[in-house]
Amino acid sequence: MNDCRRLLVTIGHPELVAAIASEIASFGPIPFVRFMELALYHPRFGYYVREPEDGAERIGWNGDYYTSSDVHPILGRALARQAEQVDRLLGEPDPFMVVEAGPGKGLLASQFLAACSSQFRSLYDRLCYVFIERSPAMRERQRHHVTPWLNEPDKLTWINSVDELPPESITGLLFSNELLDAFPVHRLRVRNGHIQEIYVDYQQGEFVECLHPLSTDALAAHLQRLNPDWPDGYQTEVNLEALNWIKQVARRMHRGVVLTIDYGHTARDLYGPERRNGTFLCYARHSINETPFVRVGLQDMTAHVDFSSVAAAGEAAGLHVTGFTNQLSFLMGLGVERMIAELEPESPAFRAALHLLKPNGMGGVFKVLIQHKGIARAELDGLTYKPFWESALTGSETSVRTL
Ligand SMILES: C[S@@+](CC[C@H](N)C(=O)[O-])C[C@H]1O[C@@H](n2cnc3c(N)ncnc32)[C@H](O)[C@@H]1O
Which DSSP string corresponds to 291-339? Predict the structure, then answer.
């Protein structure tokens, strides 16, 4: 076997593998959700916590995967435009808070700030931009990308967790792009008519999966609400952290809008018969695999978001659904046609901007959930076009049992 082949099958970052193996040795097999938490966010060796050993980036063309802001700045510009409308709805408060959660390397923030400072000066002058980022390494990357704005006192601040914001302290906009799909998930498989949970064991130098009963009452209660009728062999994921997250956000919001962009679906689509293998994926060097037990700590892991459950958890905590759309419709509503018309036709920038709109690509797979609190439900420009029925996220559609 040559060196290249050995690299492809490496089990992962040695200290991280040892830390996970040691936890399994002490406590027995761990639920997959715990394995994913350690692989991505172990406080010393996790994928997002460590600086990459080769000096490359996690996110971007030199990294493992790219996000919308690597393709073209139009999403950041559209978000700035949407923020300006929310600012007017709130009566132009001072300060207007923009809270970005899980900002990655900070490129979207820099694009948002550039658009805001050049086009929406009144908003920019009252803007207080808060980054919520749990990884110190990612915080450093963010600082690098927003250097031009660092010399303005109190304009930008960083916190580690949404818990650090006092209750009802946000007047403004809280947004995230590809945060919820980076939360650790429970993985489930149906065997002999019972929904079982995937656990991770460590045997003879390798991680292996095994099935056990559900690890928590919260997971069992969530499945009861979903009320699925999955056949034997059906495999899927449940992201309880996303539901806790949106409840935490609801408590911190005083008056304003929460905007969540991510890979995802309604519960009915995510847990329907056509997704019988789930949506869990790993990303390494721009290739996709379904094998979390190699390159542990050296590749990203994600699963698509159940937006119905996020909407329902938000409603229960006082965050009301304003609307649900996809990235293509969101950008069209915010005037992306005009932005693209300013680009040289067929130029690389023109083609890149169109890439974000492709109905079978980034324009369609990314969904946008908008919720509000402390204000009346508003007609937001980003929700002008909605490819889903109004009830798609809520009411009886929350149950995934087929009619
Ligand atoms: C997939 S990246 C986000 C990409 C970025 N938003 C963009 O548009 O390019 C996920 C980011 O969320 C951070 N993260 C994960 N869980 C978090 C949490 N609970 N609170 C804050 N940040 C978190 C990760 O460290 C990482 O920076």
Answer: -TTSSBTTSEEE--EEHHHHHHHHHHTT-EEEEEEEHHHHHHHTTHHHH
For ligand 1, atom 21, the nearest C-alpha belongs to 133
pLDDT-based confidence at 2, cuts 50/70/90?
A: very low
> DSSP letter at 281?
E
Ranges of each domain in the chain: 3-336+366-398
In CATH, the number for domain 3-336+366-398 is: 3.40.50.12710
Cα(327)–Cα(343) distance, integer angstroms: 20
Closest ligand 1 atom to residue 103 Cα is 6
Whose CA is closest to atom 3 on ligand 1?
Answer: 104
Give residue-wise pLDDT tens across range 260-282.
999 999 999 999 999 999 999 99
Tokens of 153: 């006192």
Q: Which two tokens stand for residue 388?
A: 């889903």
Q: Please name the residue whose Cα sits nearest to atom 14 of ligand 1.
A: 102
Q: Which residues, 6+ apart, have CB-to-CB distance to 225 below 8 Å?
A: 309, 312, 398, 399
Residue 50's H or E segment, with its range, is none
Tell me which residues have their CB closer than 6 angstroms to ligand 1.
48, 59, 67, 69, 101-104, 108, 132-135, 138, 161, 177-179, 182
